[in-house]
Structures are given as C-alpha cells and as structure tokens.
Amino acid sequence: MKAFPVRPVLSNLFETLRAHATRRAVLNSAAALAGLLAIGGCSPLSGDGPSPANIQAEAAAYVPAPSDRPAFNYVVLDIDSDAVSIFGTPPVSSLFATFGRDKGPAPEIRLGVGDVVQLTVFESQAGGLFIPKEAGVRPGNYVTMPPEIIDRPGTLTVPYAGKIYAIGRTIRQLEEEIDRSLANRAIDPQSVLTIVSRSSSQATLVGAFTTPSKIEVGPNGERALDMIAKANGITPPGYETYITVQRDTRKATVYFDTILANSKEDIYIHPGDIIYAYREPHRYLAFGAVLTQGQIDFGATKLSLAEAVARASGLDDARADPHEVFLYRLAPRSLLERAHVDLSKFPDSQTSIPVIFRTNFRDAASYFAAVKFLLTDKDVIYVSNSMSYELFKFLTLLNNTSQTMVALPQNIKAAGSAIKSLNQ
Hints:
six-stranded mixed β-sheet; 32% helix; Outer membrane lipoprotein wza fold like; five-stranded mixed β-sheet; alpha+beta; 19 strands; wza like fold; elongated; 24% strand
C-alpha cells in the first residue's frame, strides 16, 4: 500500500486543533490520528528504544534458550517445620570457630624486630664488672644501659656478653640468657629488661573505624572489642558492619553485633592480626503483589520472612494471592542433602542450588513459620497475582479493545474530514 504523507498533514492539524478545538475535539482528533497511523503504515509510534523484535532481528547471532527445559534447574520447597530448622537460620562465619585452636589465655607476647628495650644489670656487690670496687656496698648496685632497638637480624648487643638472639623470646627468657652470658664476668648478675616501645606486637585496624591505626597488643591480652574500643569504635551502625579478622592464612568475618551478642566471638587478638571493618547493608528484593516493590534494606542484623513482607508494606489486598508467596535463594548443597532432596539433576560440582521456598499465608500456621524463617542477603520475595485479578485484567483489556474498535471508524472519518477542510 502506498504511504500516505502523514507528517505534513499532522503538523497542520495539530496547529488547527491547538487554535480552535475544544477539549472534546482534541480527544477525538487524537483518536483519529491513531487511525491515520494505522492506515498510513509507515510512521511508527514513538518509543523509548528499539523493540524486542528489532533487537533480535539485527543481532549478528541469536542463541535461543531451549524450549523443552528451564534455563536453570531449581528446587521448590514448602516452608514447614523441617524447612525452618534446616534453612531458616542461614549459616554464618565465626571468629571462634576459625580461631578456636587459639583459645585460652591471652597470647604470650614475644620480642620481635623493631622493638626497643632497655637493659638494667644488678650485681650483688661492688668490684664486679659494672660496679667499681671503690663504690662500696650500697643499695642499688646496678647499671642501666641505653635503649636499644632489636635489629633486623634479630639480635641485641649486651656489653661483655656480645650479640644475643632476641626474636621470638619472652622477656624472662632473654633475661636468663643475659645472666648466663655475664655469669663469668659479673658478680651474681641479675638482668631486668624493660620494653620501651613495641612495633612487632601490634595489630592493624583498618576500614570503618573512627581512628584506624596500628595498636599494640598488651601483655595482659587484648580482645577484639578491646582493640575496636582503642580505635574509638566503628562509624556505621553495628547491624550493617562486618568485622574481619585475618591471622596468617586464616580469615573469618562476622557482624559487629554478633561479637556483642556472643562473648565466645570476642576472641583474643594476636600480634600481627589485621582487623578490617566495613559496611555492607543486607538487602532483599520484593516483587509482585506487594505494596512496596524494589530493593529494601534489612535495617537489622536479622530479618524474618514475615518482617520482610511487612517492610514491603504487606500484600496488595486487591492483587495478591496469599496462597502463593515465594522466596528465591541460592542454598548450599549440603543443606538440601540434609533435607533429603533429590539432586540427581544437578552436577556434583554445583555447591549452590537455586531454591524457591513457598508458603501459604492463608494457613494460620504459616505465619509462625514465616516468623522463624530468616532471610539472607540478596533473597528475592515474589507474591503472585490472584486468579481473580488476572481475570479482571483480561476483562478490562477486552472492554478497552472493544471500545477502541467500535470508535475506530468514526475516528478515521473525523480525521478525513479534518484533512479535507484543511485542504480547502
């Protein structure tokens, strides 16, 4: 069919409508324009971007998903008492579980490179190595050496005793070694070693602390909360803050509030540990027949399914099907094996299995399960529409379509009259 020169006519028609038409006439003419575009066949309606058909047609290659099977295999589980006991409490990391073999008393602080110490040697009487004979017997027959830093080779130089290896030794062990080295020269020597400053027994606190810094681990021991307090605390809310402790090759991460709630998680910090605090709010997605859709913050350390639906302003009474409330999650394979789920269709190497948990809010008991079933980060809640609402949408579409089809000939006739009058 030959294209009708629509654009020049439309431009003139809009000017005429703006100048002379009443509101009713504008509405009728707008419908007429839709009819013109339908019969013109060459000027498409405006849009925000390419249509799906155009995207697929212009692709260099198109790989459709198999029509005989889903894109991903998944498991559907109804939320009952067993599901709550197995999946309702998400597994979490633990400082105590990771560093449990380091439990017990505070770690013994040993000397290391960079520590500054000061040595005092006592002798039982004058006339020895350090106390001249003419000094006589007096209280405090001792001599104090200048402060000395333990060098990179790890040695400490003591007059008349030479270089003594210090790294990895306690203060008491080093004092005994110095006494043995001076025994043939001094009179009943007794050494007292004082630590001026420590750099080898510090832990590093970085991230969301008020004062990130390197903090010395005292001889009485410092627990995680002690070190956090010395850094003047954390800046984000506790329920949104993770604390990671790294020791050698081991690492564990917990919520800050978990350390507060469980004293076992308040572990002793060792020299060289790295404590990292960072903020990561837990969020979930709510879709479907809820009153507030989108990404929603937990706003707490723990959030149950019932609380999550409440944070989404509840179910939409006009749309929702309370029988079909779904929660999407990637669950550990080990938990599904505990629930005796057949995983034969999933490869053995797949450690995380897509699971859709389903609950029925029409069932009174389901609310108790929803209160106990805790969400994990990035969970998705979807509430389906009821069949009555789907029927309502279908009937509304039919009604609107029928009205449009009835009015279409009249609108086309009105548009033709308008164009004829413009030509005259």
